[in-house]
Each structure stands twice: as structure tokens, then as C-alpha cells.
Amino acid sequence: MIDLETRLRETMDRHSPSPTSPPMPANTASRVLRRRAVGVATTMAFAIAFVVGAAGLFRYLSTGPAEQPAGEATVAMPTPLVPTPTEGGITYVTPSPFADLRPGAWPNVEVGGVEDPYVDREVGDELDKTVVASGLVEGAEWSMTAFALRGWGTCGELFLGDMGDDGGVRFCSRVESEPGQTDLRVAGTSFGLGPVTAYTGVVSPAVDRVVLELADGSRRSVDLANAPNGLNDRSFVVFVPIDAGGRVLALDAGGGRVAAEPLCVGSPAPLEQVTSCGNGLATTFSAVSAQP
Amino acid sequence: MMERTEGIAGTGSLSSRRLADLYERHVGRAVALAALVGGDADAAEDIAHEAFIRTAGRLSGLRDQSAFDAYLRRTVVNLCRARARRASIERRYLGWLVQRDVDQAPSRTEDQDILWRALGELPHRQRTAVVLRYYEDLSEEQTADAMRCSPRAVNALVSRAMASLRERIQKEET
Description:
The complex is a heterodimer.
Chain A: H1 4-15, H2 28-63, E1 109-111, E2 130-137, E3 140-149, E4 153-160, E5 168-172, E6 184-191, E7 196-203, E8 209-214, E9 219-222, E10 234-240, E11 246-251, E12 257-262, E13 274-277, E14 281-285
Antiparallel strand pairs in A: 1-2, 2-3, 3-4, 4-5, 5-14, 6-7, 6-13, 7-10, 8-9, 8-11, 11-12
Chain B: H1 16-38, H2 41-57, H3 68-93, H4 95-104, H5 114-120, H6 124-134, H7 140-147, H8 151-173
């Protein structure tokens, strides 16, 4: 019996085109030259911008900035959105790597490292979607965008798969069918192809931080993404065990509770299906087959 | 596996002759890679040609000019991915039309090959990882570099792909 790897190699060799190069088209050299010229011009533009920026910074530093408390001289963080074990007084459980997502197991999540995160662009879709976070969960890419949508307030979309092909969800701060508080809007989504379960949401400026409180009473802080220009509400995403129960808490700067929403996903969605719930749920995007 | 390109390090400019040499040495393999990753033999030559122009166009800016093949491979993977994304969006809008075409399409000879068909049905990223690992014979680290992800992610992608292929084959062969 030939092993699968060998069969795979033979199959790919049989079906791949001959590795003999086709003749080089006549205009190749000129296209390469044009491309190089554009590259050089771009590099020069960046160099000039850098020099101008450095000169401005030097001038600013030499005149001295206005004094301010050290605590206020903070720099906006990039968008680490997975639970981080940094909040005092709360018990954290650091997720450990695992091979597959059994009930109770935390997914393996990486933030960043995706060069070209997926953004769902639809024909006629003029929405100004900004990627606020991306990464890998269980080896699959995920990406989250934020944007304003007329009548729906601040919205975001989470897609799984490097082409969004594992499905996605849109969540918004105003959902007509879900009256009630608008400080914390949450959408829970089960992606059947993982299966992977995620909670995404958007919080109003009244909210300082978001905490995931699990059914066993343990808590994890959830980082908030910086809102893109023009938006006030910040969004978040947290990947949880497929059977996680508990709630999402929105807290103000003093630690007081602003709002709470339950973790609503019951059992994982069937394979290749996407199911969603929650007071922030706007749309569920089904998984798209890789090949028609 | 694509061979390393020696003898072009330090060349800031490329003569047409040298460009033709590079083309002849690398584009054939890039066409094969594009066909396997993208699953479309007809588009593979265009993708490989475009990738060659992009890579050769920034040759002087490459940190390691002797690794032309690695840069070309990465560009091919990126272009295949961009093309697959476009196709995915088109399919979403023209789903009914595509379905009709699929229903009416005559079965092709290669469709008789279970493994080839199963490979084509893998999610794009899994297929890319499998092709780079077992067709290009790249290590996990090299595959991760070409796909711009971590070796651990490559390991997960290949494991999933192999599990899917194994399951599919067992199902069809029993």
C-alpha cells in the first residue's frame, strides 16, 4: 500500500503542467523596467517623507514637549484582542496549545501575522471597512473590520478563513429587532467548519473595558480594538471553547458594571454551517465552498 | 523544487538576455505551482508571468537576490490567493449560474482521479500548504515563509488537509 504522501506527490506530478518554461513574451523586459522605475520612485518618495518627518520630530524634541504626567504619555496599542493575563484581581487561565477543539478546550489563537487580512467586499458595497484586528485561530485566518452603517450605527464584521470562506458575522451597535441598552452589543457565532466559537461586539464610549465571565466564575479580560477614524464605538472579538457558558461584562473606568450580555451560543453549528445569536447580531454569512 | 538562482547577486540591472535566462529557468516551475495552487491550468501561465514581472521588477531591492525562486514562489502564492478571493466573491453573486454550469459540465478525465478531485476541493489555504510541502518539497519553515504565516499554522493546515484527503479516499475506495 503506497502511503498518502507518495500518492499525493504522484498525483500532483501527473496533473501539473510541464515545468518547461513557455517562451518569454516580447513586452516582458519593458514591463519589468516600468515596474522597477515605479519602485525607485516610490522608494524615493518614502525616503523624502522620512527625512521630512525626522526633521519635524527633531525640531519638536529640541524645543521640548509640554510637560505631562507619565501615565498620559501612552501610545495606542496595536490591537491585541485575545484575552490577556494582565488585569489585577482577576483569575486567568492561559490557554494551552491543543490539536482539536474538544468541549472545554480553548482555541489556539494568534493575533497579527496576517499580511493581507480578508475584507468582505461586495459588488456595489461602498462601505469604508477598516481592518482592526486579524490573526489565526487553530491555523485558520480570521479578520475583523469596523465601519459605520447608516441606520445600524457602528458595525463590524468577523470572517474566518483567508478568503472568508469559513463564514462570518456582522454585528452592529443598533439592531432594530433588539431594543434595549446600546452600551454593549454582542454577537456569538459558531463556525461549524472549526468548529470554532467566537464572541464579537461593539461597546459605547461609556465602556472602559470588557471582561468575559465564564460559568465557573473565572474571568478573562478582552482587549478592545482602537476605533477607526470617525467612529466612537470600539469593537472586540474573543474566541472561546465551543461549549463556553457565562456572560460578557462591560465595565466603566471605575470597575462598575455598565452592561452584561449572556454567552448565547448553545451547541456548535453543524459542519459548514454558521449560526449566530445575540443582541448585536445583524447578519450571518454562511461558509463558501472552496470549489464550486 | 525550484532551484536557487546563482549568479544574479549584485546585478542592479538586468539585460534582456539575462532576463530571458531567468524566465526560462524559473517560469515553467512557477506555472506548475500556480496551476496546482490555483487549480486553474488556463490561468496559471498568466499568474506565473505576472509574478515574474513583479519579482524581477524589484530584483535590486531584494535582500537576498540569490533567492529569486523563493520570492517568485511567494508572489505566485499571493497572486493565486488574490485570484481565489475574487472568484469566491464572484461565486457568491453568481452562485446559481455556477451551480447550473457545474451541473451541466461534462465530467473531465482528471475528475476520475479521486485524490486529484479531493485536492481540488480542499480550502484554498490547505491546498496551498499541501502543494508547497509535497510538490515543492519545502520544509514547514519555508512553506510558512511563502504563505506568510507561522510554521505551527502550516503544520495545522497540512494535518487538516491530510486528514480530509485520507477520509475522502477511504470513503470513496470502500
